[in-house]
Write a structure and sequence with these properties.
Layout (H helix, E strand, L loop, with lengths): L1 H32 E16 L4 E6 L6 E2 L4 E5 L2 H26 L3 H31 L7 H30 L3 H26 L2 E3 L4 E6 L6 E2 L6 E16 L11 E6 L7 E8 L4 E2 L13 E9 L11 E7 L1 H10 L28 E4 L6
Parallel strand pairs: 1-14
Antiparallel strand pairs: 1-8, 1-13, 2-4, 2-7, 3-6, 4-5, 6-8, 8-12, 9-10, 9-13, 10-12, 11-12
Length: 376
Amino acid sequence: MKRFLGVMVCMGLLGGALFAWYQYSLRERSKTDELVLYGNVDLRQVELAFDGSERIAELLVEEGDRIVPGQLLARLDAKRYEYAVARAQALLESQRQVVARLEAGSRPEEIHKARADWEAAQADVRDRGQTLRRIEKLIPTKAATQQDLDDASAAAEAARARAKARQATFDLAVAGPRKEDIAAAKAMLGRYAAELNLAKHDLRNAQLFAPSPAIIQDRVLEVGDMATPQKTVFTAALIDPVWVRAYVAEPDLGKIHAGMVATIETDSFPTKKYEGRVGFISPTAEFTPKPVETSELRTKLVYQVRVFAKNPQNELRLGMPATVRIDLAQLAESKKESGSPPKRPVARDTAENGVAASAGRSTTQETSLPAAAARP
């Protein structure tokens, strides 16, 4: 019996050792076949402001509302902008009539009047000439004085000058306006058209539209507040793209490259796995960030990695802790296909992420987007 019990104990110890070795082998295999990274969910935030200065007349969204591109978010008191548009339209229409008048030239009635004035001046020249000749015949008989002769001569000369002036006026009526005057009038017309477009642009900017899909975080100003381009009206969190900002140690840097498929897990939804893709690897190293610093890691250099996630239900929120798992079998497959190891990862701007390559930033830089605009 004792021998039997001894055999059973030995077999139990041997089985426990085999089980421990098996578990250890699985852990070691998982370490070599999978890279696990830890980080936080990150996204872009924008500050929405009016591209104009006036009091706010209406706000149409609240905190937590989801907005879509082109959605109207707020309005300014637009009376001043409407008056500016009306004034610009009146000036434009007035100048348009000036250009039309110049291009049409002289009216037939104006030409007829100029011709009649010229003919009347010619008749006066003939009359003054006959008077001068009669006085010249009277001078030898002393029936007219030298003063009469001088007056008649001056009157005839003045009549000829008036006739030339009337002829010139007639020629101008026939020729019409100068082309330089028409060009100047058209230039002025273009200026008024530009002023009208500017006034309409300012009127459109009295409305604030959503530039992209987002969720309203804060409503900073209220109805009646004075808005300016420097004052934020809403802050919004962009729904897309969403990524996990994680850090990879330098020895593991060669195991990943941009485009690798990843799986993202969170503590908030432990049963869900989110599809992801490595979209950005920092080109520069940094010390381990303080949130994950330990006595062993504080002297090690790490590289920031952004793993972009598919978030159809909008369950991933800013700052949420996340675990990223990358199957390293992808690296072996890429080596087989290319016949050579992949190039060392470099920072790149891909169409998928559209993120500028920058390292060492613990938070995403906020941007200010005045409404116009934009545009999307």
